[in-house]
UniProtKB/TrEMBL annotation:
Keyword hit for Hydrolase: yes
Name of the protein this chain belongs to: Hydrolase
Single Gene Ontology MF annotation: hydrolase activity, acting on carbon-nitrogen (but not peptide) bonds
Organism placement in taxonomy: Bacteria, Bacillati, Actinomycetota, Actinomycetes, Propionibacteriales
Species: Acidipropionibacterium acidipropionici
Pfam families: Amidohydro_3 (PF07969)
PANTHER family: IMIDAZOLONEPROPIONASE (PTHR22642), PROTEIN LONG AFTER FAR-RED 3 (PTHR22642:SF2)
UniProt superkingdom: Bacteria
Keywords: Hydrolase
Length: 486
């Protein structure tokens, strides 16, 4: 394919280069010869940037979230119950053989955790399950909990929550693929050319099927969890290696979850949460240090990078320790709360800080309460860069939307709405934010991958909602047009 009159935008300098013609083939970009037989797209002087990546997506949960009714992220328990009552009143046959599923509550500022009994007051015998916005808890009615195979009080957290979400994924493969395809098309329209799929039960074969049926609209690196590590090792697919010749699907990292989330007070911290007075009140470690080291060593030996979830600062310290002991490479996912003494360790160990800027908008109010004494150590984008660390941006969708431009805006302005910037001292430049979204590729040029985005605007001339609202005129992933308005 021949792209005529493209103007590469250098993300390091913010300067638009003179118009050039670019030839794509074999997934790469080259300078075209004097004569060439190729399909032609005239970009008419549009700015062209390297393609954008979302480094942390739960694709199946994102697709399922489209089918769930939304409840307020800011409401109290009683407010959520009111949302549920309204939704059930609008259903023609609530609970007809299926669990009614909602999504979006945040429990971080509630004065108590609710139970099945609370939901039962509104839903009766209708099975209802509500998934939290951060995916770390599921609130079930008594009947829903029973149908999912859980007892207890109906408020499931961490491992139980993840298992419940897997059981709630009741769509047929064909229906799920179509929903995934719709999500991918929306992402491509925002300029996304690649994602890391961190879904619990995703696999290479599922994505190859989607690619074969036209339901894959970007590069995909498929993560594997510890329970399937042996299988991944046996296949011999190193992280980044294509699953088949010419495929956009590749092996991703080993994904390990070491702690919980701030909303459930389960992010593992060095200091207790407000009202606590000891280690038992400082969050949870879901994988012990020795087990973590063993997993990372096995991944290292199999040429798999490791992507390790750590939201609390003690979890981050423990993860960095494990990277140092094993010599493994990879990323620390979320890095939401950090000790400053750990900052230089990222660069020293070659560990990427894989962060989600939009979480700053979602979590700032809760952090001002839950981590009131330590918000100055949250979302340390500027300090991480100053220490030499590499930043990589993602969404953790469906926790936040797959929307790289909104994430870039938040990283640059430390706000995503009309509120003033939150800890503006940690703001980074637009160039730095964009490079964190392109895997460090600064300019589209011959020799590089045919992953690119053509824009009708110059993002360096924008700010606020205009920057957050940038869309793509043309998106190419691996030389394939995945979105076009031309």
């Amino acid at each position: 394919m021949l792209l005529k009159r493209a103007r590469p935008l250098d993300l390091r300098t913010g300067l638009l280069r003179d118009p050039v013609d670019l030839l794509t083939g074999g997934g790469r970009i080259s300078a075209p010869p004097a004569t060439v037989q190729a399909e032609v797209i005239d970009l008419e002087g549009r700015a062209v940037i390297p393609g954008l990546w979302d480094e942390h997506v739960h694709v199946g949960q994102l697709a399922l979230a489209r089918r769930r009714f939304e409840v307020s992220q800011t409401a109290s328990v009683e407010g959520i119950l009111a949302d549920v009552a309204v939704h059930l009143a609008e259903l023609p046959t609530p609970g007809a053989g299926l669990i009614v599923q909602g999504f979006g509550f945040r429990a971080s500022q509630w004065d108590r955790l609710p139970s099945s009994a609370d939901l039962d007051r509104v839903v009766g015998e209708v099975p209802v399950a509500l998934v939290s916005a951060d995916l770390h808890s599921v609130w079930c009615s008594t009947r829903a909990a029973r149908e999912l195979g859980f007892g207890g009080d109906g408020f499931l957290t961490e491992a139980d929550s993840f298992e419940a979400q897997t059981r709630l994924a009741s769509m047929s493969p064909e229906a799920l693929d179509l929903a995934v395809s719709a999500c991918g098309q929306e992402a491509a329209a925002r300029g996304v050319v690649g994602i890391r799929d961190m879904e619990f039960d995703s696999d290479i074969e599922t994505w190859l099927r989607r690619e074969a049926t036209g339901c894959c609209h970007h590069r995909v690196e498929v993560a594997v969890y510890p329970d399937r590590l042996d299988e991944a090792v046996a296949r011999g697919l190193a992280t980044g290696r294509a699953a088949a010749p010419g495929s956009l699907v590749a092996m991703g990292p080993l994904k390990v979850i070491v702690d919980g989330s701030m909303s459930t007070h389960s992010a593992w911290c060095h200091e207790p949460y407000p009202g606590g007075d000891g280690p038992d009140d400082a969050g949870v470690d879901t994988v012990g240090p020795r087990d973590l080291e063993s997993l990372l060593a096995r991944a290292r030996d199999a040429d798999l990078l490791s992507a390790v979830h750590a939201i609390g600062d003690r979890a981050a310290t423990t993860v960095l320790d494990a990277f140092e002991i094993t010599g493994e490479r990879g990323s620390l996912e979320h890095a939401q709360l950090l000790r400053r003494s750990d900052l230089p360790r990222f660069a020293a160990l070659g560990v990427t800080a894989s962060v989600q800027p939009l979480h700053l908008v979602d979590d700032r109010d809760a952090a001002d309460v839950v981590w009131a004494d330590r918000t100055g150590r949250t979302f340390l984008f500027a300090d991480l860069l100053a220490s030499g660390a590499r930043l990589a941006f993602g969404s953790d969708a469906p926790v936040s939307p797959v929307d790289p431009w909104a994430a870039v805006r938040v990283a640059v302005e430390r706000t995503g709405d009309r509120r003033p910037p939150w800890h503006p001292e940690q703001a980074i430049g637009l160039s730095e934010a964009l490079l964190a979204s392109t895997r460090g590729i600064a300019v589209t040029a011959p020799g590089g991958p045919a992953d690119l985005v053509a824009l009708d605007v110059d993002p360096f001339a924008l700010g606020g909602e205009d920057l957050a609202g940038v869309t793509s005129a043309l998106t190419m992933a691996g030389g394939r047009v995945t979105h076009t308005l031309l």
